[in-house]
Amino acid sequence: MPGQSKTLEDLFHEVLKDIYYAERKILSALPKMAKAVKSNELRAAFEKHVKETEGQVQRLQQVFKIIRQEPKGKTCQAILGLVEEGEEMIEEFADSVALDAGLIGGAQAVEHYEIARYGTLIAWAEQLGMSEVVKLLQQSLDEEKMTDRSLTKLAETAINACGMKEAAE
Ligand code: FE
Ligand code: FE
Ligand code: FE
C-alpha cells in the first residue's frame, strides 16, 4: 500500500506489532537477567515482571482481536539493541559488585521504551475512539511505570552495595 493512503489506524497497527515483538523478546530476556543478578530482592522483582509481561502479551493479543488483525510482531531494532546491551553487561561485569546496578539500568531503559510505546498507542487509540483498547493498554502502561519505580528503589541498594565493597578494599 502506498504511503499516501495510510491512516492513523495503519500507524496504530504498525506500532502494536512493534510492542508485541518487544514484549515477547523481553519475556525471553528477563529470566536470564534474573539468573545473573546477586540480590534476591532484585531477582524477585525481575521474576514478578516476567509474570506481568505474560499478561501484557495476552492483553496485546486481545487488542489485535479487537482491531480484527492477526497477532503478529514486527522486528523492533530498539529492543534488540537494549537486550544486547544487557547481555554484554552480564558478560563484562560477571562477578562484579556493580553488575546489579548495571542490569537495573538496562532494565529501566527497557521499561522507558515500553512506557513511550504504550503512551503513544494510548493517545492514538483515544483519537480513534477505541475505549476498550485504551483500557487494556493503560493497565500495561501502569505496570511498566510501577516496575520502573520499584527498580529506582532497588537501584539505591545496589549502588550502596558498590560503595560498601569499595570502602572495604
Ligand atoms: Fe512489558
Ligand atoms: Fe521498536
Ligand atoms: Fe516492562
Describe this structure in words.
The protein is mostly helical. It has helices at 8-36, 40-66, 77-92, 99-127, 131-168. It contains five helices and no strands. It is elongated. The model has no long low-confidence stretch (mean pLDDT 96). Bound molecules: fe (iii) ion (FE) (3 copies). One fe (iii) ion binds next to helix 1 and helix 2.
Features:
single chain; 169 residues; mainly alpha; Ferritin; 5 helices; elongated; binds fe (iii) ion
Identify the CATH class.
Answer: Mainly Alpha
Task: State the helix count.
Answer: 5
Fraction in beta strands:
under 5%
Q: In the CATH hierarchy, what is the superfamily?
A: Ferritin, core subunit, four-helix bundle
- Largest sheet composition: none
Q: Work out the radius of gyration.
A: 18 Å
Task: Give the termini distance in whole angstroms.
Answer: 63 Å
Q: Which of globular, elongated, flat, extended, rod-shaped describes the shape?
A: elongated
Mean pLDDT: 96
Low-confidence segments, given as residue ranges, are: none
Indicate the CATH topology.
Ferritin
* Ligand kinds: fe (iii) ion
Residues in helices, as a percent range: over 70%
| Protein structure class | mainly alpha
Question: Would you identify the CATH architecture?
Answer: Up-down Bundle
The total domain count is 1
